[in-house]
Amino acid sequence: MTWSIAGSLTVVPALDRPDLLAEPVAKALTGLDATRVGVAEIDPDLADTAEFCAHYGSPLAASANCVVILGKRGDTETMAACLVLATTRADVNGLARRHLGVRKASFAPMDRAVEGSGMAYGGITPIGLPAGWPLLVDAAVATAPELVIGSGVRGSKLLVPGDLLAGLSSAEVVEGLGRPVG
């Protein structure tokens, strides 16, 4: 597959380089149409979206960020993930909170997000999240022809079409989840 958003990245089929994937990501890809997913090795110090885009020439508007949130209602906790374009912020306290039916929602503490997902902080991705976690996908992500997302580790990025992400078993497309920054 040819990726117009790759910039200077060398992209190969994701399953050709399982060494560039977190274990849960590699496992999940075997159940998907992995021919539609590419992976590119990057400098782990450049994994944060802004630095990555600036260095590799991939457009910020074609990057999506996956954030892990923790919702609470009484003594019940719900771990979930939100996937929004990098040019937006997830509406965690409004839309996500209401959608999950919790009283309080916030970004999950780093240690809980890492332990729960089995992925590296700064590399958490929607592909391979635990089965019980809801995945809220912004409608703009779902309709994007190509996106750059995490790979579960900081040393690589996945390139994937938005419809593949919207089709993940735990995914639910939510209009307006990503709010403009500023």
Automatic annotation (TrEMBL):
InterPro entries: YbaK/aa-tRNA-synt-asso_dom_sf, YbaK/aa-tRNA-synth-assoc-dom. Pfam families: tRNA_edit (PF04073). GO terms for molecular function: aminoacyl-tRNA deacylase activity. It comes from the Bacteria. Residues 44-164 form the YbaK/aminoacyl-tRNA synthetase-associated domain. This is YbaK/aminoacyl-tRNA synthetase-associated domain-containing protein. It comes from Actinokineospora spheciospongiae.
